[in-house]
Description:
The structure holds two protein chains of two kinds.
Chain A: E1 5-9, E2 15-21, H1 24-38, E3 41-43, E4 49-55, H2 60-78, E5 80-90, E6 93-106, E7 112-113, E8 121-123, E9 126-134
Antiparallel strand pairs in A: 1-2, 2-9, 3-6, 4-6, 5-6, 7-9, 8-9
Helix pairs in contact in A: 1-2
Chain B: E1 10-13, E2 16-19, E3 31-34, H1 37-42, H2 48-55, E4 65-75, E5 77-86, E6 91-92, E7 104-113, H3 114-117, H4 121-131, H5 146-155, H6 157-162, H7 168-172, H8 190-196, E8 209-218, H9 221-227, E9 233-240, H10 243-263, E10 276-277, H11 281-316, E11 326-332, E12 334-343, E13 346-355, E14 358-359, E15 378-381, E16 389-393, H12 396-401, E17 405-406, H13 416-422, H14 425-434, E18 438-441, H15 444-449, H16 458-467, E19 472-484
Parallel strand pairs in B: 3-4, 18-19
Antiparallel strand pairs in B: 1-2, 2-3, 4-5, 5-13, 6-10, 7-9, 7-11, 8-9, 8-19, 12-13, 14-17, 15-16, 16-19
Helix pairs in contact in B: 4-11, 5-11, 8-10, 10-11
Amino acid sequence: MVTSGYEEVDHIADLALHVWGKDFEALLREAACGVYALMDIEPNLKVQISAAFYVPQGSAEMMLVDFLSELLYLTEENRELFTQFDISIEDENFLIRASGHPISSIKRVIKAVTYHNLNLIHTDNGVEATITFDV
Amino acid sequence: MSEISIDRITQINEFEWEIPKGFRSDMRVPVRLFAARNLLEESFNDKTIQQAINASTLPGLVKAVMVMPDMHQGYGFPIGGVAATNLETGVVSPGGIGYDINCGVRLLSSRISLEEVIDWLPELASMINQLCPSGVGVESDFRLSVDQLADACQGGAQWAKSKGYATAVDVDLTEDNGCLQGANPEKVSQRALQRGRTQLGTLGAGNHFIEVDLISDVFDEQSARVMGLFKGEIAVQIHTGSRGFGHQICTDYVRTLQGAVSKYGITLPDRQLVCAPIRSPEGQDYLAAMRCAANFAFINRQLLSNRVRDAFESVLAGKVDNWQLRQVYDIAHNIGKFEKHLINGQEMTVCVHRKGATRAFGPKSLGVPEIYQEIGQPVLVPGSMGTCSWVLAGTETSMERSFGSCCHGAGRVMSRSQAKREIWGEDLMRRLEQQGVHIRAGSMAGLAEEAPQAYKDVDLVVESVVGAGIARKVARLTPLIVIKG
């Protein structure tokens, strides 16, 4: 298995992603790519944008859900997609500085990131998780 | 967990099954499943049964967790799940209500015959599509300030009526008159309010739709007449919910309540079943916010109804004698409500969670509109586009057996990714158009995911609830126009 990546997992009514990375930060980046792929987003690559946001301290699962929930919010409300993430720790919270592009079109809705059977698993290659989304 | 199969479930009768409380050590109540054998067998292909058993571990459940025949795997609760908790000792669970709070269906009737409208269907489809904003992230031209939205989500349909957006009949013929009491916008985050400001009067995407239907069969003439449904005439269904406003409220409280679970010493088999005691500050705050989203959804369907009425007027006025649309009923199928039910022979107010399940109160029940007191509450069961939908009525038995609840649709059998692999949206659209169904869809991939093959046979689902005695057939609807985001 390559050190980082994602794959869609069959779910009867909603959507699910299996995501893995060499560490938690890599997992967050792959999860972001996976969410954007599930939503079939077309970015406007001619324009660059940037943003910064916090992910509050919590368990790894909570931080993963909070991170993706923030991306969903920025996708729907600001129509922004991010491809680069600079992750640092500030007062025990994650500070995410992100850059990317405005969105030209979104083909599929994701309503929310769920905690359904969400467990971060540590493996010999890093970390992995399966995330279920409400659509 | 022990391996579960249909052989290990107790059959009560042809359409009712029970998983006893002792099946798994953490179950607090049994699980009661309403389904014909073939539908129940299908549910073993995913995690539906396991999720129903998980739901039966919640504190303060007053009776069995009920599961309707359109059951399928969800997240946390199964879709089709109904669970009632004691107000003093029980919990409220956002996971048992879902992100799309008060997702529901509104049915409008007309006195327009198929013959009168058939030549105008393509134009009507385009006009409804033009007037009703749909799709991912699409905003409404109806915008409110945060303060106005706070007022709106406290008053629900009553607010809509006070502003001239709803008639008295619209309000009377809506579940709970379109307003859950106890909504408090101070318990809603600023982010949710900002998201909701521009989303009233929008359909959204996914499985949400507007359908113009032919009333193709009537099974109970008297009930159908009371509902204003006549064979050969036209009806309209609107299926949507509380949009980003509700999604944000659920997201906020699923996170907040993660802390409440440990604070109150609750053990859960799945974190998405997150909950808080109803009497706790956390539980009360969630209920107050959830009710805001429920009221928002009632207004959302009202505003969309007005747009559909405008489309009918624009296309049909002067061409047909009577183009008006009259409300039949508006119901929620993702909701948590305080309701009175008989528990072990005693009337008790309980918190009923319905996740992909519809209220189905019987005749002479409190909360059923006066004109439906003799026949029971209309129960709206949309099928998948290209197949039928059903109008049912609640029964006395549903009050005793299922907390006055029934199925909410057909229920999925095929995953979205499989549907996309196997079905081309363009082919599906062509086939449906050949069948006489006029489609307006924002996304061909989205259309493929919602293909009829991805759903159970809604007729079989209805046979199960009728066979179990929790609903009665009134009329069957066949689609003529389908609008999807």
